[in-house]
Structure formats: C-alpha cells, structure tokens
Write a structure and sequence with these properties.
Elements lengths: L4 E9 L4 H9 L4 E8 L10 E5 L5 H8 L4 E4 L9 H22 L3 E7 L12 E2 L9 H20 L2 E7 L1 E2 L8 H4 E2 L1 H13 L5 E6 L8 E2 L2 H5 L11 H7 L14 H4 L11
Parallel strand pairs: 1-2, 1-4, 2-3, 4-5, 5-7, 6-11, 7-10, 8-9
The structure holds nicotinamide-adenine-dinucleotide (NAD).
The site of nicotinamide-adenine-dinucleotide (NAD) has 25 residues, from helix 1, helix 3, strand 5 and strand 8.
Organism: Stella humosa
GO molecular function, one term: oxidoreductase activity
Family: Belongs to the NAD(P)-dependent epimerase/dehydratase family.
C-alpha cells in the first residue's frame, strides 16, 4: 500500500460482513475517517470511525451515508446465488443507489466489490484477464456484471474514478481444490483495497481479487497500476487439499465459476465454447 492518507474520508458499505470487518481492522488509523455502514449490528465506533445504519436499497439513507465522503468501498450485497427478489433490492437497486448518491455528493472514487462469478462461465482451460467479456454463472453473477456496468457508466459519463474488484474466494485459508486458484487471504484483501483507495488518479479499472497463488488463472494488468502486490499463496495447502478434498463436480471443473455454475444447471456443457 502507499502511505496512509490522513485526509481521506472513506465509507465502507456492508462493513459488518466478513470482508468488511477484515477491512475495518486492517485499514484502522490509515484515514481521517472510516464510516462503517450496514443493516446488521456493528461494534461501537472507535477512534477515527463512525458507525451508521444504512440499507443500500433506501436512497435517502445512502445519501446520508455518502455525505462528505471521498472514497466509497461498496461491499453491501447478498454475497452468493439467491432468489431474484433478494438480489434485486440489495445488489441491483443498492448498487445503483450507491453510485448515483456518490455522483450527487461529488464522491471522487468508488471501489465496487464485483466477483469472479461475473465471468464464471468462461472455460477454465483458458486463463482470464480483465479484458474478457462478462459471462455470468448465476443471477448473483448478473448483479455483479450490472454493478461493473454502472461503474463504467459513471466513470465515462461523470468522471468518477471506479475500480471493480472481481474477488475470488475470501477465506482465512483455502478450503477446497478450486480455491488453490481462487483464494484471496485476509492480508491480501486489505492490501488490494488499500491500494485501490490510495493509488493516484485512475479512470475505470478491473482487478481480480486473488492472492499470489501458484495455480492462479486470472491476470490483472491494472495490479501494477495501483501497486497491488499480493504476498500469500494457496499452494502451502495444496498437498492437504489435493489428498483430502474430493475431486470437483464434472461440470464445475470445466469453468472458472466452479460450483456456482452447477447450481440449477440443466444446460449442455459441450455447447459452452
Ligand atoms: N467473500 C467472498 O469470497 C467474495 C467473493 C466475491 C465477491 N464478494 C463480494 O464482496 C462483498 C462482501 O462479501 P462478504 O463475503 O463480506 O459478504 P457478507 O455477507 O459477510 O457481508 C455482506 C454485508 O452486506 C450487508 N448487507 C446486505 N444487504 C444489505 C443492504 N441492503 N444494505 C446494507 N447492507 C447490506 C450484510 O448485512 C453483510 O454485513 C459482497 O458484495 C460480495 O458479493 C465476496
């Protein structure tokens, strides 16, 4: 990460979640303000923090949360495949509200928590970079493609600086064979978001949120641009995971999105180029 910027006022949405709490700890004391917003309960505000209740589906609440903010880290979402009526308010309306409220309030930069599931139906035999077209593997993945598109629109039309982070598998340690490719450690997550917050001006960038995994199949040119240098590697768990964990599902193993591709799947794998 660059040097802490003690004038920056940063808002994290979804701050009570797994990634949010890791960022709250990891980014403590780096900025003038960390405003922590969620619908779920949170610990009391510490030094340099504000804790606010905010449903991102409620535009008036989002407008209050973004007031006076320089950079937003937008994590709030249903974080996995789910029913459309659950995804719609949080991931679609909520993400639109965050970008639009940010524009109205003159927020300089928005960092959007996208997902590898925005590109999950690309074949795993071919490594991906940030220029590969969207290929969602779920309704959840569609909501992340939507968020990336809104981010691009606000960068081009309103000169907002936007980073979409296609996060892999955020875990204390990799849990299955696929995560030998897709794992991002807590430490690397803090480094990635810290770099996205602190890097000099950019326009619109997409980055894969992964550690320095030996088996990684996603490449991000923009990592150098923001100075993201991951330090962890899932390979340390490879022997255990390859011997103890079952082989992947025959459909999951063919695509970057893995098990999410299999949910409700009644397609024909051979037709997916
Ligand atoms: N964990 C991963 O491996 C992973 C991978 C790819 C992408 N992501 C994305 O990163 C983000 C954070 O993921 P996480 O693992 O911390 O999930 P999480 O479920 O632990 O945290 C999400 C938080 O968002 C909050 N939230 C949900 N709906 C909300 C609403 N309407 N208004 C305000 N807050 C709301 C929840 O209360 C929760 O605290 C999500 O956008 C997720 O899609 C995570």
């Amino acid at each position: 990460m660059a040097h802490p910027n003690t004038t920056l006022r940063v808002l994290i949405t979804g701050a009570a979640g797994r990634i949010g709490q890791t960022l709250r700890d990891g980014l403590a004391d780096r900025y003038a303000l960390l405003r922590l917003a969620d619908i779920a309960p949170q610990d009391e505000a510490g030094r340099g923090e504000e804790v606010v209740v905010c449903d991102v589906a409620d535009m008036a609440a989002v407008e209050r949360a973004v007031a006076g903010i320089d950079v937003i880290v937008h994590l709030a979402a249903v974080p996995d495949e789910d029913a459309w009526d659950k995804l719609l308010p949080a991931n679609i309306s909520g993400t639109y509200n965050v970008f639009e409220a940010a524009r109205r309030a003159g927020v300089r930069r928005v960092i959007f928590a996208s997902s590898n599931h925005a590109v999950g139906f690309h074949r795993r035999a071919r490594p991906l970079d940030e220029h590969d077209v969207p290929r969602p593997d779920s309704r959840y993945g569609v909501t992340k493609v939507f968020g990336e598109a809104v981010g691009r629109l606000y960068a081009d039309k309103h000169a907002m600086q936007v980073a979409s982070l296609r996060i892999g598998s955020f875990q204390e340690r990799p849990r299955d064979r696929r995560q030998l490719m897709t794992w991002i450690s807590p430490g690397d997550m803090v480094r990635l978001v810290g770099c996205a917050i602190e890097a000099p001006d950019y326009h619109y960038i997409t980055l894969y949120g992964v550690s320095a995994n030996t088996r990684a199949t996603w490449w991000t040119h923009a990592a150098d641009l923001i100075g993201y240098r991951p330090e962890d590697d899932a390979e340390a768990w490879a022997d255990d995971l390859m011997s103890e964990m079952p082989a992947e599902h025959p459909v999951a193993v063919q695509f970057h999105g893995g098990p999410t591709c299999v949910v409700e799947f009644d397609g024909e794998p051979g037709r997916i180029d």
